[in-house]
């Protein structure tokens, strides 16, 4: 992703834990994928770091200017199984979210790509076997052909399940959008990402946040030169509530339709730095064509 502009960072996600950086200025882009033992920070320019304090927290990510691991900051624990289309992408650990759009296909973020993924449906507490889960391996993992890892344009991915999900009260699909997201509309964001804007606290139970869709003008003003027509912003310009690391790939739903995919942001819940989401409406034809070609 392109340099989002210089900003003070409390920390940056690194291999095996968190690094707290003092008095540093980082031209960073942070995605919102969950910790996976590899660096998730993308830089367009070199970074100068002052003295570091390495924290011995295995698998902990500290909020940095852009996160690759999303969770919900300032939200609440979702009512159990109230978000039945939400899935957890697992590779020995939860690393991203996704949305079930039909019995055999899931939508997520392209930056969540891995060669092997197990899709976990019907989850609420990802650390407890609750008896409602369906664990299904991915048969095909298809990134958008024009995905740009530097700008995060076209940050969308499709996963074909190796067998159809069983649709029930705890596992169901979400509709694709019939119109683009409307400014001012209320949206529901969900995920198992970090709940702290500074520091790290990854919940076991699914978190929810209700937030407004911002106008494209507000979104572009928050990230000058970084917002494409395939992106939109949701959140509060005053800060305090946002998706975060570990939420990547998860759903943004408005009026019963999947309007967005958790993608990136400058830190988490920072003032005038709302979350940025992939605009699913722009990809409805690609989604349908890709599913038809891989059925």
Structure overview:
There is one protein chain. The chain has 295 residues and is mostly beta strands. Helices cover 6% and strands 36% of the residues. It has three domains: 7-69, no CATH class; 71-76 and 175-281, Thrombin, subunit H; 85-173 and 283-293, Trypsin-like serine proteases (Thrombin, subunit H), CATH 2.40.10.10. The chain has helices at residues 216-222, 284-293; strands at 7-8, 11-14, 17-21, 25-26, 28-31, 41-43, 52-55, 70-73, 76-77, 86-90, 94-102, 105-108, 118-121, 134-143, 157-161, 186-191, 207-212, 231-234, 242-245, 251-254, 257-265, 275-279. The longest helix has 10 residues, at 284-293. It is globular, with a radius of gyration of 17 Å. GO terms for molecular function: serine-type endopeptidase activity. Keywords: Calcium, Disulfide bond, Hydrolase, Membrane, Protease, Serine protease, Signal, Transmembrane, Transmembrane helix, Zymogen. Its EC number is 3.4.21.4. One of its GO terms (cellular component) is extracellular space.
